[in-house]
Amino acid sequence: MNKTIHWPSYITQMSLLLNVQLDASRQVELARQLARIADIAAPLMAYPLDERQEVGGVWKL
To answer: Tens digit of pLDDT for each residue in 1-52?
Structure first.
């Protein structure tokens, strides 16, 4: 699965949802850091799991 996230839009939506005020310079830096984290995580997320390999369980109350 290969998804590209538009980080500035995500940051705008989440800041509105969470009622967090971010100035333009902080939004730019946050977008840069989120893109960097996504790049670091990409190889791990692309690692194929064996069909018999169980993924993390989902707990329901």
So the answer is: 557 899 999 999 999 999 999 999 999 999 999 999 999 999 988 888 777 7
> Domain range holding 28?
21-47
Total number of domains in the chain: 1
Which pair of structure tokens corresponds to residue 34? 């989120």
Measure the CA–CA gap between 34 and 56, rounded to whole angstroms: 24
Question: Would you say residue 28 lies in a domain?
Answer: yes
What interhelical angle do 7-18 and 24-46 show, nearest 10?
Answer: 110
Q: What pLDDT, on the 0 to 100 scale, is given for residue 15?
A: 96
Structure tokens at 56: 């993390």
How far is residue 17 from each of residues 22, 28, 47, 49, measured CA to CA in Å? Answer: 13, 18, 32, 35
Residue 8 lies in a domain: no
